[in-house]
Amino acid sequence: MFTAAQISAKRQRGFTYLEMVFVIILISLLYVLGIDKLLKLRADAEAASLAYTISGLQGALSLQMAEMVARGDMQKLPVLAGQNPVDWLLQAPEGYVGKRSPQDATTVEPGQWYFDDGSRELVYRVRFHRYFQTDQGHNPEVRLKIGIVYADKDRNGRFERQKDDIQGVRLQPVNGYRWLDEPKNTV
After folding, report:
1. Domain locations in the chain as residue ranges
2. Out of 49, 72, 131, 157, which could bridge 43 as a Cys pair, Cβ 3.0 to 4.6 Å?
C-alpha cells in the first residue's frame, strides 16, 4: 500500500524524457501533415479562383464579339486579338496591377495579374507554384491571349483575312499548364 505522501510524490514527478520526446514527435508529425494539407487546399483555392476569373474574361470577350456581330462588324473581329480583356470588365480581377512592359514584369508578385505590353498577353503569376506545372517548365505563370477562331481553308496554320472565314474569338492559354495533386520536388 502507498501512503498519501508517496502518491502525491508520484503525481508530481511529471513527464519522463522518453514521454516528452514521444509527445514532441507526435505534435511535429501532426503539424507537418496539417501544413501540407493546408497548402494543398490553398493551391486548390487558387486554381478555382483562376478558373473563375478566366471564365469571366471569356464571358466579357464573348459580349464584345456579340456586339461586333450585331453591328455587322464580323470582319473586324481580328481587332480584338492583342487587346487587354480586363478593359472590358466592370471590375478588374483581384490582384490586377495593370499594363507592364517586359522589363517591369519582374516586379509583379505571385498572385497578381498584369497585361504584358510586349507580347500582348494577360499574365497571372502563380502563388502556390509547388502544385503548378507548365508544359515548358519555365515560370510559374498562366499566359492568356485572345485568339481568332477561323476556318483554315488553305490549311497553312495561319489566319489570312482574304482566304479564311472568321468564326469567332476566344481567350486561350499561350502555354499549357496544369495543377498537380502532389507538390513538385524542389530539390
Report:
1. 14-179
2. 131
